[in-house]
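U., I forgot to send this yesterday:
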Amino acid sequence: MKNRGFTLIEVTLGLAILILIFGVIFQLVQISVLGADAAGRNSLRSREVSGLFALIRQLCLDLPIRSQLALEPRAGGGYDLVLSNAPVAILPTRDGGTTTLRLLTKKDRVTGAAQLTLEEVFQRTNQTGRIEEPLTNSFLLMQDLVTVDWFPGNPLNRERMEEPGWTDPIKPAYLKLQLVRREAGRNATNTGIFWIPTGYGPGGQPPVDPVTRAPVTVTNTNPPTG
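Result:
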């Protein structure tokens, strides 16, 4: 009896089946790798947002009574948050001057996407009248953003947030930050609300100076312009 070999059709069919099997395996591995990569990016974005919100929350909680808060118009539309006489965030603690924090939204020169930057400026108070160069430091907080919007909140009007551009002489009770990022072909929004204990009280009452125990009539002497 003669040994029967494989025909060309059988060999071709076998190779086709092997190619299909390897193709399915490759797709499963690729999907797994892409899924792990997407999960890693989502985890990184979540940590970025959590870290940013924690920083802003602490700044608002540490904001002195006689500090100033302003929402200044930015080029291209929108507002930037500016805190004068603010607690230090990056530079080491220094005496004999004032600290200004600016949370600025700028466009990336390469991608064109918005990015949020914290700029800290320390201006020394010089008794001799000579102008000294301020100490400036900046830190990139978040990039690849679509929009960054700030809204001050007033407990006297709980139904809606005030329009950007805070002009009241007393700081708001809370700030709302809304970030929009482009993710997987759609816009993803993250929103945080931060309480300001030196602003309006829950019943709409003004803050009280902890030393004199008297109401602070003016705490925001730097309203936005424009």
